[in-house]
Amino acid sequence: MVDEVTKGDVNNRREVFGRKETSGELVIFRFDDATLRLLVDSLTESVGHGSIKNGGVSVGTSITRLITASTPCKRVIVHAAGGHIVIGGSDVIYTEATRKGVWLPKHNSMVFYVSNVNLLYARAASASTNVTFTYEN
Description:
Blueprint: E1 5-8, E2 13-19, E3 26-32, E4 38-39, E5 52-59, E6 64-65, E7 75-80, E8 85-88, E9 102-104, E10 109-112, E11 121-124, E12 129-136
């Protein structure tokens, strides 16, 4: 097992230090003292991606799939190049009162951690709204 040493910090986080049995490498786990939930550093990735590809689609008022073919990926970066859009699943709705999905303003981007690009759909307020995307695998 690992040897544990705990210490608190000014943000009410508890850190647990230990060493891996096999390599002796130091391991740090951070917990929120109030909720006792494990805090995860979302900026770290253990392995780089093998390929990066780009695509684009013209989106209108009807639901449009970003890409129709099965395209496995680790993540997709969607950019609202031509106007405001809503990104989501196959039931995405643009209308604000009944909106389903994530509203993405013109010239903004968002990262989606999905296993396939064809899981993402878009909708816009008007026809011919350009959406570009980059996906990594």
